[in-house]
């Protein structure tokens, strides 16, 4: 069972544990978004059993989310770039993709900055080699920026079932 916590503004915030859900419910900080969840939670609260399946709850008051910066490691870069080569658009398995330094480190490019790192397929990385993209007629598909902890798509990549539940909610 997964519990998706939304801000009062409906922005996905996090996935929380049963225990945290019970605490938030008992403090009347959250509300359920559908009747079935409401019912299941009432049962959970009365101690009979835990809710089944996906539960979506919404905070009753908006909270400010601190923008926690993640490290631009390979895993996070693959998440940010949706496992897509940022030069040619090829979407591949993680093993088929490399991390490219836009300005090569040998030419003074930073090795640890979000704005100098992108996911590239092996072919593009080989073609680009020790060049800046513009020197070999290559272009980035979008400007690379930092990834922060609260980005909804990180949550949804890790929990696809929550993505479906959230999207269903927005289309009602
Ligand atoms: Zn490519």
From TrEMBL:
<dbReference type="InterPro" id="IPR003615">
    <property type="entry name" value="HNH_nuc"/>
</dbReference>
<dbReference type="InterPro" id="IPR002711">
    <property type="entry name" value="HNH"/>
</dbReference>
<dbReference type="Pfam" id="PF01844">
    <property type="entry name" value="HNH"/>
</dbReference>
<protein>
    <submittedName>
        <fullName>HNH endonuclease</fullName>
    </submittedName>
</protein>
<keyword id="KW-0378">Hydrolase</keyword>
<dbReference type="GO" id="GO:0004519">
    <property type="term" value="F:endonuclease activity"/>
</dbReference>
<dbReference type="GO" id="GO:0003676">
    <property type="term" value="F:nucleic acid binding"/>
</dbReference>
<dbReference type="InterPro" id="IPR052892">
    <property type="entry name" value="NA-targeting_endonuclease"/>
</dbReference>
<feature type="domain" description="HNH nuclease">
    <location>
        <begin position="72"/>
        <end position="126"/>
    </location>
</feature>
<keyword id="KW-0255">Endonuclease</keyword>
<dbReference type="GO" id="GO:0008270">
    <property type="term" value="F:zinc ion binding"/>
</dbReference>
<keyword id="KW-0540">Nuclease</keyword>
């Amino acid at each position: 069972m997964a519990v998706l916590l939304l801000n009062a503004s409906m922005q996905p915030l996090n996935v929380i544990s049963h225990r945290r859900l019970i605490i938030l419910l008992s403090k009347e900080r959250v509300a359920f978004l559908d009747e079935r969840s409401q019912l299941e939670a009432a049962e959970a609260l009365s101690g009979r059993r835990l809710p089944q399946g996906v539960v979506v709850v919404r905070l009753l008051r908006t909270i400010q989310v601190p923008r926690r910066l993640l490290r631009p490691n390979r895993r996070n870069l693959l998440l940010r770039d949706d496992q897509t080569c940022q030069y040619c658009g090829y979407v591949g398995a993680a093993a088929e993709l490399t991390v490219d330094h836009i300005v090569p480190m040998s030419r003074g490019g930073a090795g640890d900055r979000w704005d100098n790192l992108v996911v590239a397929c092996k072919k593009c990385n080989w073609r680009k080699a020790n060049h800046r993209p513009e020197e070999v007629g290559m272009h980035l598909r979008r400007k690379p920026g930092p990834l922060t902890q609260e980005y909804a798509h990180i949550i949804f990549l890790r929990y696809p079932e929550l993505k479906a539940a959230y999207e269903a909610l927005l289309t009602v």
